[in-house]
């Protein structure tokens, strides 16, 4: 047997399924979906028409935190849902309980945890980690090896450069007090964050802000302003020609 498809999975017209792939009970594959070799599609996952899933991806898996983890798994997580025309890369892992829009690219070795909400035409680059309870607006781009921590919100048309790190816990895992304050950054519409920058817990990056490479942002920024340094400080206004829609 070169593949296994549960009898209660629903497979649309024109679907192509590679070798040694497993499709579990209740999964729904829309028309013209392409599934590579050694892919696992977990129970109840919904995959939109025209989506491509590359070799050895894992789609719709349940979260399984460590025994010492503080993450509580919701036993009523909804199925993973992928919109039409998505591309899921090799070895990508997508968890149950998230909703991903149309024409989204999740590149090789990236993962998206549970209870994330991702808009249309989002790019999630190679090796990007998107933790649980993250919101990502449409047309946002997240480049290679960025880390998007839990409880982060990225609005529409945000740019996150390679190696950016977001954080959500000023207590770094100690004291019960931290649970009242865990919060990731909010990056507003059209803002850009340069390579290797670090956004500290709860900061708000205002619309059209430009965060220079290597900056450490510990306070909220002002709109359409360039920030650089450790800690980040305002330098000048963003040039008019770089503004969204100019």
Please describe what this structure looks like:
- By secondary structure, the protein is mainly beta.
- The protein has 2 domains: 1-62 and 78-124, Hexapeptide repeat proteins (UDP N-Acetylglucosamine Acyltransferase, domain 1), CATH 2.160.10; 140-240, 3 Solenoid (UDP N-Acetylglucosamine Acyltransferase, domain 1).
- It is 0% helix and 30% strand.
- The strands form 4 sheets. Strands 3-6-9-12-15-18-21-24-27-30-32-33 form a 12-stranded mixed β-sheet, with no helix packed on it. Strands 2-5-8-11-14-17-20-23-26-29 form a 10-stranded parallel β-sheet, with no helix packed on it. Strands 1-4-7-10-13-16-19-22 form an 8-stranded parallel β-sheet, with no helix packed on it.
- The model has no long low-confidence stretch (mean pLDDT 94).
Helix-residue proportion: under 10%
Cα radius of gyration in angstroms = 19 Å
What is the CATH topology descriptor of the largest domain?
UDP N-Acetylglucosamine Acyltransferase, domain 1
Give the overall average pLDDT. Answer: 94
Major sheet: arrangement of strands: 3-6-9-12-15-18-21-24-27-30-32-33
Structural class: mainly beta
Q: How many domain units?
A: 2
Please indicate the percent range of residues in DSSP E strands (runs of 2 or more).
25-35%
**Low-pLDDT ranges:** none
Terminal CA distance: 57 Å
């Amino acid at each position: 047997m070169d593949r296994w498809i549960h009898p209660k999975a629903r497979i649309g017209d024109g679907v192509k399924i590679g070798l040694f792939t497993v499709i579990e009970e209740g999964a729904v594959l829309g028309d013209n979906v392409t599934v590579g070799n050694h892919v696992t599609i977990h129970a109840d996952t919904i995959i939109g028409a025209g989506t491509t899933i590359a070799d050895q991806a894992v789609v719709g898996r349940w979260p399984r935190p460590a025994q010492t983890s503080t993450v509580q798994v919701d036993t009523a997580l909804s199925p993973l849902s992928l919109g039409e025309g998505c591309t899921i890369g090799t070895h990508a892992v997508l968890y149950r309980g998230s909703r991903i829009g149309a024409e989204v690219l999740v590149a090789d070795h990236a993962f998206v945890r549970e209870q994330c909400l991702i808009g249309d035409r989002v790019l999630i680059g190679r090796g990007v980690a998107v933790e649980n309870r993250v919101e990502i607006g449409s047309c946002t781009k997240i480049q290679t090896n960025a880390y998007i921590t839990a409880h982060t919100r990225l609005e529409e048309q945000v740019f996150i450069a390679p190696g950016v790190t977001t954080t959500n816990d000023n207590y770094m895992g100690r004291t019960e007090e931290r649970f009242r304050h865990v919060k990731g950054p909010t990056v507003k519409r059209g803002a850009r964050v340069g390579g290797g920058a670090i956004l500290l817990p709860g900061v708000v990056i205002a619309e059209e802000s430009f965060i220079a490479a290597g900056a450490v942002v510990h306070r909220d920024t002002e709109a359409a302003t360039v920030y650089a340094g450790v800690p980040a400080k305002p330098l000048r206004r963003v040039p008019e020609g770089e503004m969204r829609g100019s």
